[in-house]
């Protein structure tokens, strides 16, 4: 009978714990060392080597995790018969993901950190590009509308709003302006005003904002 030790399976929750701890420390500008990273957690320094191969692996995993969670969030947006609704819903999902994971969100765009998969950002953008292309092919946008450009402009609206809100520069209620911004963008790209407003209104319902964790900005 084989009596050797059975290899212990890695616990994904430990990997997530270390990543989220590192992301929080970066955002709060705490000095990060191997020991400080695992302090106040239930894991030892050995866990960093087990799950990441060392601190260099942690840095690479940080940005990657942000984009992984974003694409997972995008994948939850089911494609409908209305591409303008879908493009709006994706922007709403982008904002929701940033609010749910504010520490990782800030690190996603820190180019001083490497990425395990350098195509991660393009993979996320591809969801918006597909919706924009479907909108053009369906006649909602002009035939000369560039799907990638329209997708990028949609992303910029969501990114700008949620960055300012999560950073405490603008009140949470400012996110409500996103629907009007997208409507203006899509009408400018050729969509009819009435149909556009209806599609955006429905797509924007995918945005669910928690009452805690995002500054109200009463100033």
From TrEMBL:
Gene3D superfamilies found in the cross-reference section: Tetracycline Repressor, domain 2
Entry annotated with the keyword Chloroplast: no
InterPro entries the UniProt entry points to: Homeodomain-like_sf, MT1864/Rv1816-like_C, Tet_transcr_reg_TetR-rel_C_sf
Alphabetic keyword roster: Transcription, Transcription regulation
Domain HTH-type transcriptional regulator MT1864/Rv1816-like C-terminal positions: 87-180
Oxidoreductase among keywords: no
Protein name: TetR family transcriptional regulator
Organism: Spongiactinospora gelatinilytica
């Amino acid at each position: 009978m084989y009596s050797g030790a059975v290899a212990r399976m890695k616990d994904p929750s430990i990997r997530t714990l270390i990543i989220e701890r590192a992301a929080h420390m970066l955002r709060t500008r705490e000095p990060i060392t191997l020991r400080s990273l695992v302090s106040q957690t239930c894991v030892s320094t050995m866990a960093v080597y087990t799950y990441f191969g060392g601190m260099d692996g942690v840095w690479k995993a940080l940005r990657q995790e942000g984009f992984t969670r974003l694409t997972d969030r995008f994948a939850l947006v089911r494609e409908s018969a209305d591409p303008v609704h879908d493009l709006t819903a994706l922007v709403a999902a982008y904002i929701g993901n940033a609010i749910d994971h504010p520490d990782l969100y800030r690190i996603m765009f820190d180019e001083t950190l490497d990425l395990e998969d350098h195509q991660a950002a393009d993979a996320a953008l591809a969801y918006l590009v597909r919706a924009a292309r479907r909108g053009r092919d369906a006649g909602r946008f002009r035939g000369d509308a560039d799907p990638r450009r329209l997708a990028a402009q949609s992303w910029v609206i969501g990114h700008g709003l949620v960055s300012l809100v999560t950073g405490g520069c603008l009140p949470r209620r400012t996110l409500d302006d996103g629907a009007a911004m997208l409507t203006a963008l899509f009408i400018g790209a050729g969509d009819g005003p009435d149909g556009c407003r209806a599609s955006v209104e429905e797509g924007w319902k995918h945005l669910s904002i928690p009452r805690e964790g995002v500054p109200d900005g009463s100033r």
